[in-house]
Amino acid sequence: MKNIPIIITILATAFLASCGSDDKKVTVDNSPTISVIVSPVANNENNPFLSVSGKIQSENSATLSTRMMGFVNSVSVNVGDKVTKGQLLVSINNADLQAKKAQVSASITEAKAAFTNAEKNYNRFKNLFADKSASQKEFDDITANYQMAKARLEAANQLKNEIDAQFAYSNLTAPFSGIVTSKMIEKGDMANPGQPLISIESPGNFEVMAMVPESEIAAIKTGISVDVVVKSINHTLKGIVKEVSTSSKNTGGQFLVKIGLTKSEVAILSGMFATVQFPIAKNTKTTSILIPTDVIVSNGQLSGVYTVSQSNTAMLRWLTLGKTYGNQVEVLSGLNADESYIVSANGKLFNGAKVIPSSILPKGKEVQ
């Protein structure tokens, strides 16, 4: 009788275990399968054209600074203001220059008086020496005094010119007519020698400064017509190579090329980035991965594309994108050359969605 509780416990445990196994059910994924069309990656192995990055700037621009130190008395312009040649832009306190100018003026007056007196003595002794009424030594002394007085007057006049030149740096004026693009100083600030104060540029005429690698610079000549793609305004402009640098010493191994833009009605601004396309075959062949821009999935600053996993599910791959070639964009990372991507689907795609490739498009034409 003592074993009855143990037997009851074993039977109860077996009963509960059997009940638990009956409650377990296999979960079946009943989500619909999405039919998709996939396409292999296209490569631009045969793209023969040289493309480099550049920046648009005004042909006529200047950044003004001063050679003197002093407090700013006034700044008469703001960013965006139109200015004319010779217009006063910045005035710097020049009290010390005014004092020096007064001293120089007094020195000039004194030097003029001394020179006039020395000149009279020289002319008188010149006549006396001709009449044998003055000795050679007397005439030599008078001649030396005359020449020294003349030199002192010349020195005083040159000092005045120096002071006048310094006044030009206390009152900064516009070197040409244009528009103020930046203002780095305010009234009451301390201006220091060499400090940028005001930048201006003349609107209407623009150029592109591009950097060309040393492997390609030998083929770049002045007068070549090029296409300039401004991605920010989705427009292609025409340009002509104006200058080609002959040294890359100060540009990190890249050669500076200046391209003049032909005038157009397109609203371009200084500082815009551009891609310069030269009609020149590349010496260095490169292969890049290209996909259509309309298959890109965007999420904030992230860009990606859907691919098909080995288990036939949709998988979103985040990409790093490069240059745009027409309606295709270069993939720098995130997708390999031997992979495919989803072009279209008959349902909404998401990570893990069941898909079945209903068609595989032929490999796209290589970008020219």
Helix and strand sequence: HEEEEEEEHHEEEEEEEEEEEEEEEE
Mean pLDDT, all residues: 82
Number of helices: 3
CATH architecture of the largest domain: Beta Barrel
Radius of gyration: 41 Å
Distance between the termini: 95 Å
The helix/strand class is alpha+beta
Measured as a percent range, the helix fraction is 10-25%
- The overall strand count is 23
Number of domains: 4
Secondary structure elements and their pairing?
Elements lengths: L3 H20 L10 E7 L1 E2 L5 E10 L2 E4 L5 E6 L6 E2 L4 E5 L2 H36 L5 H33 L2 E3 L4 E6 L6 E2 L6 E4 L4 E8 L11 E6 L4 E10 L9 E8 L11 E9 L7 E4 L4 E3 L2 E7 L5 E12 L2 E6 L6 E6 L9 E6 L8
Parallel strand pairs: 1-23
Antiparallel strand pairs: 1-22, 2-17, 3-12, 3-16, 4-11, 5-7, 5-10, 6-9, 7-8, 9-11, 12-15, 13-14, 13-16, 14-15, 17-21, 18-19, 19-20, 20-21
Helix pairs in contact: 2-3
Verbal overview:
With 368 residues, this protein is α+β, with helices and mostly antiparallel strands. It has 4 domains: 34-45 and 287-360, conserved putative lor/sdh protein from methanococcus maripaludis s2 fold (Beta Barrel); 51-59 and 205-281, Efflux pump adaptor protein, beta barrel domain (Elongation Factor Tu (Ef-tu), domain 3); 66-92 and 170-200, OB fold (Dihydrolipoamide Acetyltransferase, E2P) (Beta Barrel), CATH 2.40.50.100; 95-168, Helix Hairpins. It is 24% helix and 37% strand. It has 3 helices and 23 strands. The chain has helices at 4-23, 95-130, 136-168; strands at residues 34-40, 42-43, 49-58, 61-64, 70-75, 82-83, 88-92, 171-173, 178-183, 190-191, 198-201, 206-213, 225-230, 235-244, 254-261, 273-281, 289-292, 297-299, 302-308, 314-325, 328-333, 340-345, 355-360. The strands form 5 sheets. It has a 6-stranded antiparallel beta sheet, with no helix packed on it. The longest helix is centred in the first third of the chain and has 36 residues, at 95-130. The radius of gyration is 41 Å and the shape is elongated. The N and C termini lie far apart (95 Å). The model is unreliable at 20-27 and 364-368 (pLDDT under 50).
